[in-house]
From TrEMBL:
Entry's Gene Ontology cellular component terms: cytosol
GO MF annotations, alphabetized: 6-phospho-beta-glucosidase activity
The name this protein goes by in its record: Phospho-beta-glucosidase
Family the UniProt entry places it in: Belongs to the glycosyl hydrolase 1 family.
Organism, as annotated: Lactobacillus acidophilus (strain ATCC 700396 / NCK56 / N2 / NCFM)
TM regions (residue ranges): none
Record EC number: 3.2.1.86
Length: 493
């Protein structure tokens, strides 16, 4: 009872949290480059400036309305700390890091390409050669160790210039800009990369519209248009990818959470149904190929009008994603009743604390069955190959004097998750392509901008203010994961 021989193991990262080198090699700024650090209790902020010289910083709270003041555009300001600028410096450590990944036995390394490293303004005619060269070196290094790259084209990295000039993904100009960018990189890296993801956690458009869509006004109208524009862009990129290389496979990337009703009151079940609709709307369109009726009805009720044309829907139907990848860290409990202790989670935040599960210091519950539930749900709905491309435990690790890190809590978490995933494959027959944990190496937390919330198999010496040597230290989980990969998921002890 095991994974198939084709099953792939690895780890995931994102440029805005990992790469650093934010102003090196001709790179332009992106959405996250103007996002400050935060903490479990303090939200990250987008810093901005108005044409009259007024400046400020607006908090970005997941799941809440986001809008910059009228006339404000995101910009870098003195006196703020921006963690993406250095990340954990993959830009200068890529050789060492990819070697460490190969020591663990990675088949796959998921990384995102910084769109503004290739096209500094997001829609420049010509690519920035230095940017192309950087990823050439990265992919060559991967090839040296037989590691397959899985490339996210945009992991919350909308180029800042597209935000200031067009207001982000609400404008159809971004469809053309994104397809142009994909055209450049898919041609340039032909033969080096064959697995692509379009937008990280595409449903972040609703829960974190600045992250997901570079929207500085996250109104429902703008979110709906932003999502529509990304669906059309995705379909065009699937078409293009297949034309460029028949080996190319383009996946959707969805933020998935299992939702449980807190009581057996049917009203709680209805709430679960509605929250799941908000999540699965994104895969119904991008993977399923059509707008679901429940969403169209909602748009009708809310007076949302899309700037669309019939060709959009033909493209969406004809070029759905080749596979469905997703992130899944936790589950959420929903209720229409009064309940105490609030729980939290990444973009799938909300709900109340699950009395049957333990939570980490940031309030995310550890659910040993969530991946089996997620995989069955998505497999039954779409019957397309699935890929778990993010799953992991954020924790404050301790670097011991001898350079070791004893993260048995992370090993326990990952063990439970792999078992759950294995059940979905062996007991339920789900078609699962692979598993890339979050994260391969320590990097900046997306939600809080902290370094303290670590996910990697390798500790990086850097703190919440950017101090530290950036030296790498394999954790206990590094050696454990190596054993897991060596045994294709058999040896989880
Ligand atoms: C996912 C994102 O939502 O969760 C990652 O795709 C992110 O970018 C990960 O890092 C973990 O969330 P956080 O907030 O703990 O970094």
């Amino acid at each position: 009872m095991s994974f198939t021989n084709k099953f792939t193991w690895g780890g995931a990262t994102a440029a805005n949290q990992y790469e650093g080198g934010y102003n090196e090699g001709g790179k332009g700024l992106n959405a996250v480059d103007v996002l400050t650090n935060g903490s479990a209790t303090e939200p990250r902020k987008v810093t901005w400036k108005k044409s009259n010289g007024e400046t400020g910083a607006t908090p970005l709270v997941w799941g809440q309305d986001f809008k910059l003041p009228d006339g404000a555009v995101p910009t870098l300001l003195d006196g703020y700390y921006y963690p993406s600028h250095q990340g954990t410096d993959f830009y200068h450590h890529y050789k060492e890091d990819i070697k460490l990944m190969s020591e663990m036995g990675f088949d796959v390394f998921r990384l995102s390409m910084n769109w503004s490293r290739i096209l500094p303004n997001g829609d420049d005619k010509k690519a920035n050669e230095e940017g192309l060269e950087f990823y050439d070196k990265v992919f060559d290094e991967c090839a040296k160790y037989g590691i397959e790259p899985l490339v996210t084209l945009s992991h919350y990295e909308t180029p800042l210039s597209l935000i200031t000039r067009f207001g982000g993904w609400k404008d159809r100009h971004l469809i053309d800009a994104f397809v142009h960018y994909a055209d450049i990189v898919m041609n340039h890296y032909k033969g080096k990369v064959r697995y692509w993801l379009t937008f990280n956690e595409i449903n972040a458009m609703d829960m974190a519209p600045y992250m997901g869509g570079g929207l500085i006004d996250g109104s429902e109208q703008n979110r709906a248009q932003g999502a529509h524009n990304q669906f059309v862009a995705s379909a065009k990129v699937v078409k293009l990818a297949h034309e460029i290389d028949t080996n190319n496979r383009v996946g959707q990337m969805l933020a998935y959470s299992a939702y449980y009703p807190y009581t057996c009151d049917p009203k709680d079940q209805l709430k679960v149904m509605e929250v799941k609709q908000d999540m699965l709307f994104y895969s119904d369109v991008q993977t399923g190929g059509r707008y679901p009726d429940y969403r169209l009805k909602k748009y009708e009720r809310d007076g949302i009008k899309l700037n669309d044309n019939p060709e959009d829907y033909e493209l969406i139907a004809k070029y759905p994603a080749d596979f469905l990848s997703f992130s899944c860290y936790t589950s959420n409990v929903l209720t229409t009743h009064e309940a105490d202790a609030k729980a939290s989670g990444n973009v799938t935040a909300g709900g109340v604390k699950n009395p049957y599960l333990e939570s980490n210091a940031w309030g995310w519950a550890t659910d040993p069955d969530v991946l089996r539930i997620a995989l069955n749900d998505l497999w039954d709905r779409y019957h397309k190959p699935l890929w778990v491309v993010e799953n992991g435990l954020g924790s404050a690790d301790t670097l011991e004097k001898d350079g070791s890190v004893h993260d048995d809590y992370r090993i326990n978490y990952l063990r439970s998750q792999i078992k759950s995933m294995r059940d979905a494959v062996t007991l339920d027959g789900v078609d699962l392509m692979g598993y890339t944990t979050w994260s391969a190496i320590d990097l900046v937390s997306n939600g809080t901008g902290e370094m303290k919330k670590r996910y990697g198999f390798v500790y990086v010496d850097r703190d919440d203010r950017g101090n530290g040597t950036l030296k790498r230290y394999p954790k206990d989980s590094f050696y454990w994961y190596k054993k897991v990969i060596d045994s294709n998921g058999e040896d989880l002890d």
